[in-house]
Amino acid sequence: MGISERKAREKQEMRLRIIEAATEMFMSEGYEKTSIRNIAEKIEYSPATIYLYYKDKDELLYEVQKQAFSQLEEAFARDATSPDPWVRLGQICHSYVRFGKAHPEMYELMFMMRAPMNSIKENEPWRNNTDSFVVLLTCLTECMEKGLLRFKDVTLAAFSVWAMGHGLVSLDVSCRLQAMNMTEQHVEEMILASIEQYLNLIKS
Amino acid sequence: MGISERKAREKQEMRLRIIEAATEMFMSEGYEKTSIRNIAEKIEYSPATIYLYYKDKDELLYEVQKQAFSQLEEAFARDATSPDPWVRLGQICHSYVRFGKAHPEMYELMFMMRAPMNSIKENEPWRNNTDSFVVLLTCLTECMEKGLLRFKDVTLAAFSVWAMGHGLVSLDVSCRLQAMNMTEQHVEEMILASIEQYLNLIKS
Amino acid sequence: MGISERKAREKQEMRLRIIEAATEMFMSEGYEKTSIRNIAEKIEYSPATIYLYYKDKDELLYEVQKQAFSQLEEAFARDATSPDPWVRLGQICHSYVRFGKAHPEMYELMFMMRAPMNSIKENEPWRNNTDSFVVLLTCLTECMEKGLLRFKDVTLAAFSVWAMGHGLVSLDVSCRLQAMNMTEQHVEEMILASIEQYLNLIKS
Amino acid sequence: MGISERKAREKQEMRLRIIEAATEMFMSEGYEKTSIRNIAEKIEYSPATIYLYYKDKDELLYEVQKQAFSQLEEAFARDATSPDPWVRLGQICHSYVRFGKAHPEMYELMFMMRAPMNSIKENEPWRNNTDSFVVLLTCLTECMEKGLLRFKDVTLAAFSVWAMGHGLVSLDVSCRLQAMNMTEQHVEEMILASIEQYLNLIKS
DNA sequence: CATGAATGAGAGTTCATTCAT
DNA sequence: GATGAATGAACTCTCATTCAT
Predict the structure, then answer these.
(1) How many angstroms separate the CA atoms of C152 and C161, rounded?
(2) What's the mean pLDDT in A135-143?
(3) Which of A143, A146, B140, C132 would bridge A85 by S-S if both were Cys, CB 3.0 to 4.6 A apart?
(4) Are A171 and B151 inside 8 Å of each other by CB?
(5) Using CA atoms, how far apart are residues C10 and C4, in angstroms rounded to an integer?
(6) Which chain A residues touch B166 with a CB distance below 8 Å?
(7) Percent of chain B residues past pLDDT 90, beyond the cut
(8) How crowded is residue A21: how many other Cβ atoms within 10 Å of its Cβ?
(9) Please, which residues bridge with residue A149 across strands?
């Protein structure tokens, strides 16, 4: 067993190395500059080698996306710490917005681009988002158990909150807000104000 | 004057023909397949000819986007007809969602892709979205004048409603909802339910 | 006659306007940016109009070259004023070098590029250079009449002087001197020193 | 090690094949017709393959230039054989002129065109010309040690000789001599006579 | 396991030029 | 006389991917 285990471990390590390089490239250079070639160069392997670990660019991007979601979860773990679920809900929202602002390229990959979603087989759920969504779901469940929200269905509640947050962040990331007469500072204020307002609306 | 008028009209018609070809291509084949070359082929002109009417791909896409916004406005004009602003607000939301579902590629171009936003000069507002946004703004203003909403600032209200709608539609368009365990029908229900819920939340 | 004379004059004026635009463009933007289109734009005519006055780009460039030679002659007229032919010879040389340094794009067109020379028919001499060459020729003739030079044949003398000057200037213009380890200042010194040396060599 | 050596050799051979194709194309068709595409076609590879060996057109041209300089050196080695440096100087000059006449397109690339000089980084000397320049420099040094020349500084001397030779050859290559009333034979005589005369001038 | 070599496909763009009007 | 419209023919370059070794 020792040998095959080592092999498996080494394979895993290589996959990781590739993903990390890709992730870094994505964050520093953006989508455009992230080509199989460039990733390969970064880890000092040949492009062909990438294909030994990932069947195509989509699968690779899917893994990069996964990595990005890990980072979002870490952000949540760092920021959303209050034992009070209502307070925590606010922390989650702000953490989410901050993440999008800090890593727009990543946010695009996670929630906006078509690209890596093709590698999800039909009828198979999209695992990457699950954990971070659960953070929200749990928080909302606690809130609702305490009767703090005007929602009835927790799943629907979670979807709504996510949609609201995503709406704000993605309009920002895709430059649709800046394009409307607004200074960047104004945009930020508007987003934060929208969140406050929304939290106010859903509070019972 | 007849001549110059005719010339101008012909020029306009040509521009339109290009846009229409681009739009069709966009809707049927998606962004990836929409190249200057392919558009030119479709209208049976040379690629160089396109450049007589549009300075580059970005400008062309910006016009396609404009065209798409016209269609959204038409949809609003068709669907959001009630004199009662509250009813109309619901109509607007549903019209918006229906539009996104019917033309996901266009929706992407309008609100999600980075692509054509480069052709907007700094400090110059993004005109394409203005009119349809005004429809929403007007409706919300009327609602608030009648005291129907729990909002205080109408601009902020409009942004929030837009963000909410966009959040739902764009997650759908980018396949993030389907990817989560959900059947397509379920997705649709969820979106509609979210809207109902949201309208409920903002009603005073 | 009045009418056809006016027509001819207008035609000439138009040709001049084109050339002037082309010349300016050449000097400010360089060869690469000087296209028929850009010239046409500058004088606010259509590209096709250019072809009414010049049969192709080569013929046009040939005229631009002519214009450039006029400027060189003016430079000579300005700089080479001494009645003493030996002093004047030095003035001519320095004027020539200065001209090349000041208008490298023009110099290229005048003496280095293949481009506009095609429009010279076989067995027909190249008129553009004649006048400025005569300035040199005359000066050398005077020098030789006074027995100031170690040359025997004045034509050969003129060719040699021209070749020497052109060798220095063109190596500079084509960046072959800068490319050799030398600072720009050093280059200039070297060129001037070479000239002094050469004048010294030919003085009897 | 055998394998990597072979690989390296093959790579080198491929580079050479590309350069040779480019050189031939250059000599037979001229600069205008020498495109990456055409070179690729000539060696029956795809254009993309070229980019595996040369990063861009400039780098390729720079290598072609290098190749050309090798040929010039060979010409010098062949022609400039006399142990007597003064005789050798004449041989060098004639070899140089002959080379220019035989390969005008190459001469253009070597000494006249702007093109491949971009790939020389700032503050980095232009290596291609070095060796052939050294041949001249050495010869002049020997001459001056024997007190055969009226020069004082050997570097300046070398520059002057080079400039003189280049002036003659480049005016010929760029058709400025033929264009002046002269038959081709006359041109050749004139060039040779100028050289004799110049050598005469510098001889002490 | 890793890769060097190769490529087909295609991108956006520019240009000199022509010609019917 | 002037031009608007159009184009054919290029161009350089990049990419994801494959496959024999």
Answers:
(1) 13
(2) 97
(3) A143
(4) no
(5) 10
(6) 167, 170-171
(7) 71
(8) 21
(9) A203
Distance CA B53, CA B49 (A): 7
The C-alpha atoms of residue A173 and residue A100 are separated, in whole angstroms, by: 7
Contact assessment for residue B47 and residue B57, using Cβ atoms and an 8 Å cutoff: no
Rounded to 5 degrees, φ, ψ at D70 are -60, -40
Q: Do C163 and D164 touch (CB under 8 A)?
A: yes
D69-126 per-position pLDDT tens digit: 999 999 999 999 999 999 999 999 999 999 999 999 899 999 998 877 777 777 788 8
| DSSP letter string, D146-189 | TT-BS-S-HHHHHHHHHHHHHHHHHHHHTTTTTTTT--HHHHHH
Residue given tokens 């602003």 in the structure block: B85
Q: For residues D166 and C174, what is the distance between their CA atoms, to the nearest angstrom?
A: 12
Phi-psi region of C133 (alpha: psi -120 to 50; beta: other; left: phi over 0): alpha
Could you tell me the pTM of the whole model? 0.84
Q: Which residues contact C8 (CB under 8 A, 6 or more apart)?
A: none
Sequence-ordered list of residues with C-beta below 8 angstroms from that of D195, at least 6 positions apart, any chain: D90, D93, D94, D97, D164, D165, D168
Which of B69, B174, B190 should one mutate to test binding to chain A, selecting the residue with the greatest count of A CBs within 10 A? B174
Q: By the 8 A CB rule, do B136 and B149 touch?
A: no
Residue A51 CB in 7 A reach of strand F: yes
- Which of C140, C145, C128, C143 is closest to C165 using CA atoms? C140
Q: Mind listing the pLDDT tens digit for each residue in C135-145?
A: 999 999 999 99
d(CA C34, CA C22): 7
Q: Write out the two tokens for C143.
A: 């020098």
- Report the pLDDT value the prediction gives residue D1, as an integer from 0 to 100: 44
Q: Stretch B178-201: mean pLDDT, rounded? A: 89
Single-letter residue type at D145: E
Nearest-angstrom CA–CA distance, B62 and D70? 54
* Pair D36, D57: CB distance under 8 Å: yes
Q: How far is CA C62 from CA C23, C42, C54, C113, C165, in A?
A: 11, 19, 10, 11, 22
- Taking the alpha carbons at both ends of chain B, their separation in whole angstroms is 58
Q: Which two tokens stand for residue B97?
A: 């969602």
Domains and CATH numbers, chain B: 1-54 (1.10.10.60), 65-202 (1.10.357.10)
B94 touches B81 (CB < 8 A) = no
Coil, strand, or helix at residue D203?
strand
d(CA C114, CA D106): 14
List A residues 60-79 in contact with B (Cβ-Cβ < 8 A): none
Least confident of A135-144, B4-13, C188-197: B4-13
Residues facing residue A72 across a β-bridge? none
User: Could you tell me the two tokens for D12?
Assistant: 């080198």
